[in-house]
Amino acid sequence: MSRSARVIWDDALTSYNFGPSHPLAPVRVELTMALARELGVLDKVEMAGCVPASDDELALVHERDYIEAVKRVSASGLPDFGAGLGTSDNPAFAGVHEASALIAGASLAAARSVWEGSAEHAVNIAGGLHHAMPAQASGFCVYNDPALAIAWLLKQGAGRIAYVDVDVHHGDGVQTVFYDDPRVLTISLHESPRTLFPGTGFPEETGADGTAVNVALPAGSGDSGWLRAFHAVVPPLLHEFGPEILVTQHGCDSHALDPLANLMLSVDGQRAAYAALHRLAHETAGGRWIATGGGGYELVQVVPRAWTHLIAEMAGHPIDPATPTSEDWRQFVRERTGETPPLTMTDGRNPEFRDFSGGYDPADPIDRAVMATRHAVFPLHGLDPMP
Description:
Helix content is 37%, strand content 10%. By secondary structure, it is an alpha/beta fold.
């Protein structure tokens, strides 16, 4: 389906580093790029660099006083608790502004590539920092690069943008920025806020005219239930909304091995979601697709394989799940982390699901979550909430 795909990359993107004990370790991005390179995925895309977002670009989403506070922390390395920097989630570190602005700049470069037509799809796997608020760092996130990409596109004249977030955590920062903007449809599928940070993302959070959509899934949901919920909500809303551009966030912390959350997806289920979003980009947005990374804290077994599948899917050359990882990459993993690397690109699952059109089971907690979302927002889009 793809005509062209661009990966935005600079080795300095790994400088977004909260320290050796922090879950958001930049080695996950380093290992991803190494695996994609070893499997020949990067040979099928265009590689492009990036520059840091300017203060004016950051101010499309963030308050200028906050940007100045981040700069002061960046220069001194000292905390500013009012700005959310210096907490266990968001430790202060020297250079935090420069590192964060570069990630934001990479997502802006992806947005520019797609808006100007130099690439049909573009991805910044180092991005996806969806918790950052206009005036505060939150949830490992300093500058909200997906929101900045969307705000930049709106400034260029885009009239309708859809954002789909498949991170295990609610995309609260992006929702907050565009909550009352009917030009932006935000859809987040996440673990229930009753059991996971940030405690938001209930179905009744519907925004302007139903343009905030939240699917809050019960802890323990796996491939079949997650995909059933995705297909029951996302395709009909995207087809009805008709975005000019699709922006997606691909946190892979929904995996069963992730240490910070409680969903039970496999790499195979995640790969199926990427393929579905690729199809939807072509069906609903003329193929214009901007993607970012996001969460993901199983640094060796999950993140590199998941995001290598994402890049390959965007390139139009999906990887056979049975493909072995290369021995050179495995050795690199051992040297960098001391851990045992995965041998293949699959968890050995065949992610199948029952389509919601066949009816729902009110005793099933996933079906109840789906119906809560459909009842909350489908009528606001002229859609029938019943299957």
